[in-house]
Amino acid sequence: LTQSNLFGKLVDQYTGTSSMLDLNGNYEYAFTVDANAGSYAADRFKIVYYQAAPLPVSFTTIKAWQQGQGNTVKVEWSVDNQINISRYQVERSGDGRSFTAIGTQAAMGINGAAMTYALLDAAAINGDNFYRIKSIGLAGDVQYSKVVKLRLGKLVEAFSIYPNPVMGRQLTIAFSGMAKGKYELSIINPLGQTLQTQSIELQAANATQTIAVDAKIAKGNYQLQLIKPSGEKTMLKLVIAE
Length: 242
Prior knowledge:
Strand content: over 45%
Number of strands: 18
Oligomer: single chain
């Protein structure tokens, strides 16, 4: 009769006592019959079967933090007493009241073991983000973690040049919090003449790009012009040392 979470006990209604049964073996119970009718009544003994409700999973930690300059947030949570859990669902809200599922992680590990899980939210909201974890048991039972809040500010766009002054005719440009798309880079002399142009396809908000400076461009002071996918232009001072 052994089954998960199934228990049994023998109830002696004459003495008012009970004892646990071994559902997968032999069981002996010593009793005494005396002059009282209850001691030899046909219904003196009965076996009661019951299922023990599993203890709810314990969420020991839940935290969320921004990854780099973009709108990607890592949500991480740890659990203990993980018994009969099917999966975990990560939910996000912009107001702390109405939550939407953004991802699911299957439960791993041994029943009762402590585990840590993580999920990336690649489309977090500019502003307030509320996160909670929903545990879903094998029987469909549900439990929620506490709610954590993370605020994302407006992305700060920036790009820089290094080394500057440029040495060895190699110029590296660092992009931070920039929109994906096609960018036009131009080196312009003090007379406003464009000496070199190069296109860059930015695949991520944070990236670096190295370009070779044309050997025909002499040492001196220049401007590096960046034209964004939106058409907006930005200028940086550029010094070519050798």
